[in-house]
Amino acid sequence: MYSAWAFKHKPKTLKEVVGNREAIQKLVDWVKSWDREIPKKRAAFLYGPPGIGKTVTVEALANDLKMELVEKNASDYRTEEAINRFAGLASQYGSLFGAKRIILLDELDGLTGTADKGGVKAITDIVKIAQCPIVLIANNAYDLRFLNLRNYCLLIEFKKPAASEVLNRLKIICLREGIQAEENALKFIANRSEGDVRSAINDLQALAQGKRKLTYEDVSWLGYRDRQEAIFTVLRMIIYGKTCEGAKRAVDMADVDIDMLFEWIYENVPAHLTDPHDLANALDALSLADVYRGRIRSTQAWSLVRYVIDFMTAGVAMARVNTKTSGWTPFRFPERIQMLSRSKAERAMQLEIGQKIKRRCHISANRASKEILPYLRIIFKNNVEMAAGLAKWLDLSPEMVDYLAESEEKAGAIKALLG
Ligand SMILES: Nc1ncnc2c1ncn2[C@@H]1O[C@H](COP(=O)(O)OP(=O)(O)OP(=O)(O)O)[C@@H](O)[C@H]1O
Ligand SMILES: [Mg+2]
């Protein structure tokens, strides 16, 4: 059955919780102090960013100390009836079955607005006189709403665990799931999560579930995915922008440079502006932007960059007049950049083949690798005899044949013909 690993591998004991050792110790000491006397602060207020183990710490602690945990989402305590029940629970340390009780009010941030001011006040009143430990949790304890409540609480800050600590947790989960993972694959996931253990575990599950092995290659594209999503938002703001201002503002959000953004817009405008007049106008705007880009490149007159931006954003946004938004069209990665971003080794290989073509065809190696090589690829994939003939004529090395044929099988057949 499918289950979320973050849930399946929830720590059962405090030993399993990574990070925040000091904070956890402070909480444990405070809970234990109840056995001696009621402490001055009758509630502990845990706060910190999401997914770092606040809730799970309280659950594991109750488990370790064999306490009865009464766990509630704070927003459940809005009705008077619920508050009375809470007050009743909080009035006794020992539960019916002898275990000591601890009450957890989770997600205090869920209480919003003035309507819930009453809720926070009711909770505060109960905390003041509680006879058993109450733990409160919120992302931000310094919200104004908690100003008074805070006076009655032991504040305990939870911080993001270090990447190395997240890594340890991921390793244990891999072990339990029977996955052999490369160290830097897990490191990559851990670093990317920025201390959010839950999201790291979710990523791990998405990438590794059903696998025996997890390699760095399996995970490294993740980093790219984020950037891609961000750029899609930017493109949407530009191509579907309703105002010049909005479209221009998109540039500030893009984490790519102007030239790269230009490529993205240029690649995607044709698929999104289906009305020919709109498309013509958008391409006109892009061509004007490109004229300024050229001017900047040749004269370094960077002050012209504002015209590039205006034309490629506002110009494109205003071009959309007749195009109807019909259905969903995906954004595509710019073809030209994809070509450039192929590995260096690949480009070197292409250029070497270009050199061979140059000798025979008397054109530059660069041009040969751009204009002739794609056709060679098609021939090498589809016609073994012709490929062998060409390989001989161009004097291609076995590695070049491998590269052009793409599959080992085809390459083998071609090389067999070459003898
Ligand atoms: N420090 C940690 N050690 C081990 N596992 C953790 C840790 N933090 C989070 N997890 C994993 O992530 C899941 C979610 O953690 P938890 O619910 O404690 O986060 P939280 O800090 O309460 O987040 P939120 O603020 O969103 O409620 C847990 O079930 C557990 O699997
Ligand atoms: Mg929580």
Q: Could you explain how this protein is built, in words?
A:
- The protein has helices at 5-8, 21-33, 54-64, 80-90, 117-129, 147-150, 163-177, 183-193, 197-208, 216-239, 244-253, 258-272, 276-299, 305-319, 335-341, 344-361, 365-371, 373-382, 384-394, 398-405, 408-418, and strands at residues 43-47, 68-73, 101-106, 134-138, 153-157, 180-181, 213-214.
- It has 419 residues and is of the alpha/beta class.
- The protein folds into four domains: 20-157, P-loop containing nucleotide triphosphate hydrolases (Rossmann fold, 3-Layer(aba) Sandwich); 163-226, Helicase, Ruva Protein, domain 3 (Orthogonal Bundle), CATH 1.10.8.60; 241-338, no CATH class; 342-418, no CATH class.
- It has a five-stranded parallel sheet, covered by helices on one side. A two-stranded parallel ribbon has the order 6-7.
- Helix 5 links the parallel strand 3 and strand 4 (134-138).
- The model has no long low-confidence stretch (mean pLDDT 88).
- The chain binds adenosine-5'-triphosphate (ATP) and magnesium ion (MG).
- Residues 6-7, 9-11, 17-19, 50-56, 139, 161, 169, 197-198, 201 line the site of adenosine-5'-triphosphate (ATP).
